[in-house]
Automatic annotation (TrEMBL):
Pathway(s) the chain acts in: Purine metabolism; 7-cyano-7-deazaguanine biosynthesis
Keyword Transit peptide: no
Protein keywords: Lyase, Metal-binding, Zinc
Protein name: 6-carboxy-5,6,7,8-tetrahydropterin synthase
Organism of provenance: Planctomyces bekefii
Family label: Belongs to the PTPS family. QueD subfamily.
Pfam families (UniProt xref): PTPS (PF01242)
Cofactor(s) the protein needs: Zn(2+)
Broad EC category: lyase
Keyword Metal-binding: yes
EC number(s) on file: 4.1.2.50
Length: 157
């Protein structure tokens, strides 16, 4: 059985690997729809609040009103220097590759799975008209791809 839950967060990012408007620092109100697989073990399989009580604080702590940034982006080094110089603590969610919505989907799928949830799919709405659907099969395929690309010094999401 699938239980769908939706979550939202605001975050800044840029994709420095592109040579278009997305290489500029900008933000989105991301919508994340999780498709949780659950099994019935009685009259009630799962209370919706059980998802929210773990997911909402986690999203707020690690993603909401933060910056998604590639550790290989020259801006990251500048932001680290700013924090050292000023003592300011910026919330940064670190990526080992571009902060594309595809890489965000992989990261979220991995982290939600690591929390003990079983996902069939998740959808990420980056804009009003742009949504990515990311399935367990996509996640498995990406994990294989990233494992094959890993070598000393190789950066993967």
């Amino acid at each position: 059985m699938i239980i769908q839950k939706e979550y939202k967060f605001y975050a800044a990012h840029r994709n420095e690997t592109l040579k278009d408007k997305c290489s500029n620092l900008h933000g989105h109100r991301y919508g994340v729809r999780c498709f949780f697989e659950v099994e019935r073990d009685g009259e009630i399989s799962t209370l919706f609040g059980e998802f929210d009580s773990r997911m909402e604080p986690w999203i707020k702590e690690y993603y909401d009103h933060g910056m998604l940034i590639n550790v290989n982006d020259p801006l990251y080094e500048s932001l680290q220097e700013h924090c050292r110089r000023t003592g300011e603590q910026l919330k940064m969610k670190l990526f080992n590759g571009p902060t594309s919505v595809e890489n965000l989907a992989w990261m979220l799928f991995t982290e939600v799975t690591d929390m003990g949830f079983r996902l069939a799919q998740l959808e990420i709405r980056e804009t009003d008209t742009s949504v990515i659907s990311y399935t367990r099969e996509d996640w498995i395929r990406d994990n294989r791809l990233f494992a094959s690309l890993r070598s000393p010094g190789a950066a993967t999401p």
